[in-house]
User: Fold these one by one.
Assistant:
Number 1:
Amino acid sequence: MEVSHPHYDKLIAAARHAGPVTVAVAHPCDRNALEGALDAANIGIIKPVLVGPQERIRQTADAARLDISALPLVDTEHSHASAAKAVELVRAGQASALMKGSLHTDELMGAVVATATGLRTARRLSHCFVMDVPGRAEPLIITDAAVNIIPTLNDKVDIVQNAIDLAHVLRFDPVKVAILAAVETVSAKMPSTIDAAALCKMADRGQITGALLDGPLAMDNAINPEAAAIKHLVSPVAGHANVLVAPDLEAGNMLAKSLTFMAGASAAGIVLGARVPVILTSRADTVQARLASCAVAVLMAHRAGA
């Protein structure tokens, strides 16, 4: 039975209200990638520019019976060239977001972080899943589950701030960030707990802004008020977090996929910290999850242009 995801419906509606933005779609050479861009275009949230080998894209569209005749198409030779050209369109002001097609994520992100020709800012790039979890009153942000493998404390500062900025665009009020670990006490034997404590103190000192932080928190006492009460944790975050910061990529990835495949959640993915948002979708994503990923990017792009 298909699970409904009302939070995504609201995100998509908000993106439609904000108006479409131009998105450079890098190498949409399979049905999933092409259909995802078309679906978002058809409901009026993006204006796709297809960047890739012209004949391959047209053959894919013909085989899938997709009408791309109204979409601009920028011809390239191969996937690396597609990534570079899509980034070039953004640098030239011809697109306000990037979308991953059927190329490898590493190829696209390599073009994004290229020193001379990429889209880097002073902020480190990080990935956020915006999860629509059945039974929750609001979406849940999980970070970082796709870009930073073993982030340092300095990396985590940017990871947290990127997630907070996204939470504000999604109108979380207030933004409540749980820095996750296996336990809720600080231990020299568990570096993630020391990082968590440092991040919270950095927030106290204004080095991280715009949210309430608490950590280290175990998963149960981050999101469950009863679990937090049993551990005598008194904070506005414990038991009520809406942003979960994983200690490393493996933990974040397992958490997000566990919610997706065991709890009926859906995951919209976006990379932040570059000049423009980068839409990352998976072949396993539902149509609604792909549309939600586009919607989040649209809302972020409008915020950047405001």
Note: The radius of gyration is 19 Å.
Number 2:
Amino acid sequence: MKIGIVGAGNIGSALTRLFRAAGHEVTIANSRGPESLADLSAETGARAAAMEDAVRGQEVVVVAVPTNKIPSLPRELFASTPADVVVIDTTNYYPQQRDGRLDGIEDGGTESEWVEQHLGRPVIKAFNTIEATHLQPGAKPAGSADRIALAVAGDDVRAKSKAMALIDGIGFDAVDAGTIAESWRQQPGSPGYLKDYDVKGVRRALAEAIAERQPEWRATPNSPGTYESPA
């Protein structure tokens, strides 16, 4: 499968390694240009490219940039992308630690609905409930008793099924978490966030989630601070 990854931070780099290990053709891009990705490209065999080339001609595009950088992506990045291309949103909103106040999220929308509005594309929400450092060591063959499960939300059944099959193929079980409007069930602060549960555990956590964003996951007048000293 041809996969583009926009963002080469911890999540983007880990997914590059996993997708390549599974035999996928990967193109990766970031805001600093292809030259900054030479080491990752040499290590994995992924193609380092300009951001537009990480989107053009792909079957799946993974968006793995900080949430507050979403509005800075090129406005026409997805303008000519065919409707059948699956766009996966891995982002999490960290208002006190990194992102500051993002009104569309603070006003009550889900994080991925806000991302959809800025990208101009429907997305599938996935890979946001696991620590980046757990992705490679956590991948296990299908049927393993301790296999980690990941929540996957989205409105398009075909796109969601494709994303779930991709997740299974790199070593994780996938759990249907409902629609994008329900993706608050897997946002930061939810019961399953960063827990590395199995399928039963993820389903239980999704069912126990509440829609109200807790104070520690809302912006303050001093936001953003840092991960060491949230504001």
Note: The longest strand covers residues 2-6.
Number 3:
Amino acid sequence: MLNNSNRRLGIGLVTLTTLMFAVLDTTAKWLVLSLPVLQVVWLRFLTHSLFSFAVFAPSMGLSLVRWHHPRLQLLRGLMLACMTGLNFWALQYLQLAETGAMQFSVPILIAVLSAWWLGEKLDARRWAAIAAGFIGVLIIIRPGSQAFHPAILLSAGNAVLYALFNLLTRRLASQEHPATMQLASALVSTAVLTPFALWTWQTPSSGWQWLLLALAGLSGGAGHYFAAQAHRFASAAVLGPFLYQQILYMTLGGWLVFDQVPDRAVLLGATVVVASGLYLLWREFQVKTESPAV
């Protein structure tokens, strides 16, 4: 049974998750300004794979690489490779706050996909929150204005894939161990990207680049690990709102490392997107609470 102490531990772990993913995006943005995107993505997943083996293999042994649904694991790994590639590519041109704000449209997209694909019923209030969320996305994108940058479409594509990725993760979560799932996606991504990374290979010119490449992989692996552990101690309804603090860390990283401050449109759009996502999370929890037990 989940008690207050467990919830606090879960919240602390999910806070570490958001911090790790913000570090990953900040280091990735710095790296892709001087190194090929596919090389950075590949090294991120290679380091992630090595990290996962080192952490989980001693206790899990061969069960760590035992997949119950290999086709779905392969699909999930391909999706993660594409998502990360689109995100890192977008980071070459956009501020961290912009890509972060687009990522937080994922709960809105999940709600839409769940209604369309899984046949879930949404009430009028949730549809209104979804509509408001998409208005927030349009405020960030600003189509047709001089502030519009085509790279924002890469971030939008990443968000759509991320929503599908989350739905697939939900399906596998009850049948696959969390450590197996996150390692499988990293291994598949590493294998798929290897020929492309070697084709575009550019040897890092400094120890600093090597250090940041390692940091990107370690922060990505640690982020997935902390996320999996957080759900052992608290429910998704408890943890969901705390995921949004990542936008604060990404904005801070953009300011400290790149001297970039988001403009008013990005701040307004991000506020609308986050508020819509938080409402959807809250409403989902309320509906589940109100539903009669069967």
Note: The longest helix spans residues 4-32.
